[in-house]
Amino acid sequence: MTHRKLEPHEIEQALQQLNSAGSPDWTLDNGKLTKTFKFKDFQQAFGFMTVCAMYAEKKDHHPEWFNVYSTVKVQLTTHDVSGISLKDIDLAKKMEATASRG
């Protein structure tokens, strides 16, 4: 499936959808979908990263993320379209679903 860079109004709609489905913490930062997830401890944070990493590998779409103890900061962008694509929205939804099971 070929992906294209989403238009600003499509990104805004996606942000509204993500924030109404989960916690309202998804933002647009430097052209990337961004969220900081907080977990009870390192084990939960690492479990979240493991599940998301397996999904990302399967989809061949890898997040930019940073982990310190129970916090995971995620930034999503599609480098081959130089912006946000449906791949990013899909991965964000998977991350929300995974975090909510925590």
Which keywords apply here?
Putative pterin-4-alpha-carbinolamine dehydratase; 3 helices; Gyrase A, domain 2; alpha+beta; PCD_sf; 21% strand; four-stranded antiparallel beta sheet; Pterin_deHydtase; EC 4.2.1.96
Detailed description of the structure:
There is one protein chain. This protein is an alpha+beta fold and 102 residues long. The chain has one domain: Gyrase A, domain 2. The protein has three helices and four strands. It has helices at 8-21, 42-59, 86-101, and strands at residues 27-29, 32-38, 64-68, 71-76. The protein has a four-stranded antiparallel beta sheet with strand order 1-2-4-3, covered by helices on one side. β3 (64-68) and β4 form a beta hairpin. α2 runs antiparallel to α3 (86-101). It catalyses: (4aS,6R)-4a-hydroxy-L-erythro-5,6,7,8-tetrahydrobiopterin = (6R)-L-erythro-6,7-dihydrobiopterin + H2O.
Structure in a nutshell:
The protein has 102 residues and is of the alpha+beta class. It has three helices and four strands, in the order H-E-E-H-E-E-H.
